[in-house]
Amino acid sequence: MAKMTTSLVLGLALVATAGCAKKRPPELPPTPTETAPPVEGGESSDTIAGRLNEQFKREVTSDTVNFALDQYDIDSQARSILDSQAAWLTAHAEARVTLEGHADERGTREYNLGLGDRRANAAKNYLAARGVSPTRITTISYGKERPLALGSDEASWAQNRRAVTVVIN
Fold first, then answer.
1. For residue range 142-159, what is the model confidence (pLDDT) as tens digits?
2. Could you tell me where this protein is found in the cell (predicted)?
3. Contact 132/89 with Cβ under 8 angstroms?
4. How far apart are the C-alpha atoms of 19 and 28, rounded to whole Å?
5. How many Å separate Cα 15 from the centre of its chain?
């Protein structure tokens, strides 16, 4: 009986310990704009996506929407930018995009990941309201992990509070 009780206690301790294991933070995926080397005898899908993304950047007002501090609402300037993106996406029905949400360096990692997610989804919802199928849009939050400007001043922070649209194919 004592042997069975000891085994039961050890088993419960192992289960409790396994439940308390620290989870590794998810690794950030590579930037969608990275391209693979060209394939002989044809173009790779990454090359085509890169070319389509360059065309997107040339033909829309901007690929970036900026936000105010701790905000994720779409203001009039952001609406103008997203309207041009919606028009481009409507004309290129085969294109799929990723909306990347970013935050400035202030705040905790968790807070900034959440804020970046809300910014990316606000832009996605706006594009969806303009007739772009939500199935063509994916979102990802990088939080403060991929700053555009490296300074620690208001001008740099303002550049880093953004949602960027990247054509992935």
1. 999 999 999 999 999 999
2. Cell outer membrane
3. yes
4. 24
5. 35
